[in-house]
Amino acid sequence: MKFASALVAATLAAACAHQDAAQKATVQRLYVLNCGESTTTDISRWSPGVNVGQKGEFGNNCYLIKHAKGWMLWDTGFSDSVAAMPDGLVAAGGALRAKLPQTLASQLAVVGVKTAEISYIAFSHFHPDHSGNANMFTSATLYIQETEYDAIFGPTPQKFGFNPANYDKLRGNPVVKLKGDYDVFGDGSVVILSTPGHTPGHQSLLVRLQKTGVVILSGDLTHFQANWDARRVPGMNFNADQTKASMDKVAALVVTEKAQFWINHDKAQTAKMPRPPAFLD
Fold first, then answer.
1. Residue 201: partners with Cβ closer than 8 Å, 6 or more residues away
2. Class of domain 29-270
């Protein structure tokens, strides 16, 4: 009996120690890359019934994460080919004009990272402004919700707004298909959050930094602060109810984790982010 009690106590102690270590584990560096800037003549496409006919601007970031186990990239932005277009790229049925001030490849070079050195890759989702350079990273392990995988490689990817030409080479990547939240490194420092709604397998990302604290990267869970505050859902989203549930889930995490919530396309917020070679730690 004493031996059994001691064994249980030791097991619990080990579990608690592991949990404490996970809570304290952090990412070494987080680089915020400029992966595109867009303008629209009618922002109400993203906020139905609000600001009809008003112009708007969007930022678009990718995030390079340095962990002790290697480099991870979150999203790849607009295709680097957009950087060579003087007038930008017209998208979203003419509602959006995108420009790329710097290529993703050139920004990685500033950090001193080659595409082949990216060991882990994940996408908030596979719309072209987030997966434009996916084919550059064919040696990385891909972390993706199974529902998103089935949509991007299914018979009708265009139905979801996907363009297979941007990511088709990922078919040969090592892949981890997810069915919910996932702790990438097993230490609590980088956690993929399942936040479906914008697309079938949309994801957000929790990143734990030593000095900056916890940040949650939105993907397209919401597009700008006013939409987040009012819980507005764009009409083009895959599922409005799932989007609202995902918003509630992340809002609760922001509170419990005392996290910063980084809205990927909010131009005013992203304009304040440091750019390579600067980083957050």
1. 125, 144, 145, 146, 147, 148, 149, 150, 151, 178, 194
2. alpha beta
